Amino acid sequence: MSLEHDIVAPLAAQGGRKVHVYLTDLWWSQMKTAGSAIYANRHYLELYHKAHPERLAQNGTGKPTIIGDVFIHPSATVDKTATLGPNVSIGPGAMVGSGVRIRESIILGNATVNDHSLVLHSIVGWNSTVGNWTRVEGTPCDPNPNRPFAKMENVPLFNTDGRLNPSITVLGCNVTVPSEVVVLNSIVLPHKDLGQSYKNEIIL
């Protein structure tokens, strides 16, 4: 569904209705896909960096290694040997184990990423668990930075061959990913216990 084509245009075509325009040269983004959430998270953290840098995590003795802009909720627990960033948000009550590497990702509330796991370009849902030595990775789907006013392209979920287009990996709420597996470019619906590695799949 397209706001401008499916809603605004028909409303404007009806008699007696007025459509107003709000012009801005500030950053904004539509949130139509999971990939756009990762993109918006990056820019939201950038706004924090400019307006409220005290809200972002800092490097220090006994703290995890921070690269770039990272938000860690005060109630989250992150091991001092973990490396986070750039562009990572850790939600309330989340737990990040030792040796974990997280980049360009969102870890939602009460999720657990266990020791020595890697999370890249992914969203880990509420109350989900990622096992030890596990890799959860998606494919970035950012707009072209060389185009002025570039925006997120809303690529269909499937290509013309019926295959899943590469995108970020999303673990729904209450998903359990076992140790020593890889979940790549996949969407895992809520309340699933995975037992193996997955690539380019939707797990229903």
TrEMBL record:
Q: Which domain of life is it from?
A: Eukaryota
| UniProt xrefs under InterPro entries | GMPPB_C (IPR056729), Hexapep_transf_CS (IPR018357), Mannose-1P_guanyltransferase (IPR050486), Trimer_LpxA-like_sf (IPR011004)
Q: Which Gene3D superfamilies does the UniProt entry name for this protein?
A: Hexapeptide repeat proteins (2.160.10.10)
Keywords, A to Z, come to: Transferase
Give TM segment ranges: none
Under the GO molecular function aspect, what terms does this record hold?
transferase activity
Q: Where is the Mannose-1-phosphate guanyltransferase C-terminal domain?
A: 66-203
What protein is this chain from?
A: Mannose-1-phosphate guanyltransferase alpha-B
**Mind giving the lineage of the organism this protein is from?**
Eukaryota, Metazoa, Ecdysozoa, Arthropoda, Chelicerata
